[in-house]
Design a protein that fits this description.
This protein is of the alpha/beta class. It has helices spanning about 25-40, 45-55, 75-85, 105-115, 160-175, 200-210; strands spanning about 1-5, 60-65, 95, 130-135, 140, 155, 180-185, 200, 215-220, 225-230, 235-240, 260-270, 270-280, 290-295. The chain has one domain (about 1-295): Purple Acid Phosphatase, chain A, domain 2 (4-Layer Sandwich). The chain has a six-stranded mixed beta sheet. A six-stranded mixed beta sheet has the order 4-5-7-9-11-10, covered by helices on one side. A two-stranded parallel ribbon has the order 6-8. The longest helix is centred in the middle third of the chain and has 16 residues, at about 160-175.
Amino acid sequence: MITLAHLSDIHLAPLPAVHPFELLNKRAVGYANWRLRRRNSLDGLGLATLVAHLREQAPDLTCVTGDLVNLGLDAEIAVALGWLKGIGPADKVCVAPGNHDAYLSGTLTRARATWHDYVSGETIDEHPFPFVRRVGDVAVIACSSAVATPPWIAAGSFDAGQAARLTRTLKLLGEGGYFRVVLIHHPPSLEDRSYHKGLWGGRRFRDAVAASGAEMVLHGHTHRSTIRHIPGPAGDVPVIGVAAAGTAQNGRPRDDPARYNLFHIERRGNAWSCTLREYGFQRLGSDIALRLDMPIY
């Protein structure tokens, strides 16, 4: 049996010192948003407790679907590397970046260079995404929807080139008999379409899965726990979102409290068994609870 853990939207807090010249761009809006709205809802106090609980589960691989940082500052990127090392070594942790990890042009390049071993794996050509991590019968395919956008836009992008590579990667892994788990920060489901916050090119992503198949898609971005579906060649593919790991218990009402998901996956004859367990904080109380235990397959 293989165990996968899924975390997202870490938004490491508190912010490091910000120099005025670093705010002469989109960061000015993000910094004001942090000071006025998010400083209390993303306080970082529960994150260490959540991660300690996750580590007790000893997952074979921990998947992080982006937004480790807030404003894309170099100091934040460096702190995030230390946080990743606290989760585990690079062969036990992989990252699919989010929009905050590409806050400005060039931010994602610096983040990838710093987090390199955590944001890389097998690829089918010279492009970094999607990359693959294989653990037993499970193949995790990490895509990137992270792009720099104008102020007040938190959308992601999935271009034709990455779609073609994903289609080919899924086909090859399917032929190899793997349980295919696709990671992407922005939700690809129709229910989450939005120009300002959704996935530009979401149809390309859905078409790739419909053409070549996948067993499961994991995402973050919405700060909510959700289960949706998109079409696959042999039936619907589960699309599972996880609440923001960095969210405080008393955060914004529209955000769920901090949580992570744990998946137990094993082959049973010619079929798969996959169970989802969701752990996290409740609205009341300070303990981490098992909130959901359900079969996916």
